[in-house]
Amino acid sequence: MPELPEVEVVRRGLASWVAGRTIEAVDVVDARSVRRHPLGPEDFRGQLEGALVLDAVRRGKYLWLPLSDPDVPEARVHDPGAGPHTALLAHLGMSGQLLVEEPEAPDEKHLKVRLTLSDTLGMPRELRFVDQRIFGGLAVVPLVPTHDSGPGGRGDSDLPLIPGEAAHIGRDPLDPLFDPEAFHLRLRARRTGIKRALLDQRLVSGIGNIYADEALWGARLHYARPTDTLRRPETERLVHAVRDVMGRALVAGGTSFDSLYVNVNGASGYFSRSLDAYGRAGRACRRCAAAGEGGVIVRERFMNRSSYRCTRCQPVPRNARW
Ligand SMILES: [Zn+2]
Q1: Residue 82: which pLDDT band, with cuts at 50, 70 and 90?
Q2: In angstroms, what is the span from residue 312 Cα to ligand 1's centroid?
Q3: Which among 32, 77, 124, 309 has most CB atoms closer than 10 A?
């Protein structure tokens, strides 16, 4: 399952290779991969052919390409009033990949959808959706106004529109409009444990189990810490830790990122080397070891999954909320 930094790597690749091109042809190789498009493969094709890709935008793990209707005059394509606006929404699922390829490149074994793009940027390209396990898929969806009138998510355009199914989720920590102070106040207003809150997409999006454990380790907070007892410096530490661990994953994903090959799984090497808590059960806590202390990482069942923490620098809090 791709985590937010991997999706952001994909978004950047799409922004540089796909935005600004027109979709000239659509080949639905496997109709199961457009099952989320309610009107079927023919309608999917009809809505995409001729559309101009304006940008690549992401909020949390939601990724979409805002499209301009071919009938909207060029001067108005970025005008939110010049609707109707739609987007190509990508669900990556467990194994979905979006690849930018030269048309001559051989088809991938699990190729599901092929979009032929104009050669506006000097060379023809194809955008290919490849998915081995078919949990992912593509759909053309209407865009709705954002609740806060800000941009839909992280992208190059300021279009204040978002797919309806993503409109309820909070901005993610890599979004320039993510507001740490508002986040702190919303945490304080809740009566839950901090890890539950971090995984609640309505509060903050894009933080999965691995990044939650890493960020809590970075901020020296136990996962069952009551959110209503968080002090402002603790929330600041937590936001800093989330951004830090995601930023490091982005850099790692970026170094293995071939500009022509947008690969969702590119950051996997990062996980094996750089994680401080997740997957390290029974091993010494790196921070404690550096201070000459004996903290050990333990794995515990929490919310039906594994949680990793240090026994010494993330102790069980008073009034823990499990
Ligand atoms: Zn420790």
Answers
A1: low
A2: 5
A3: 309
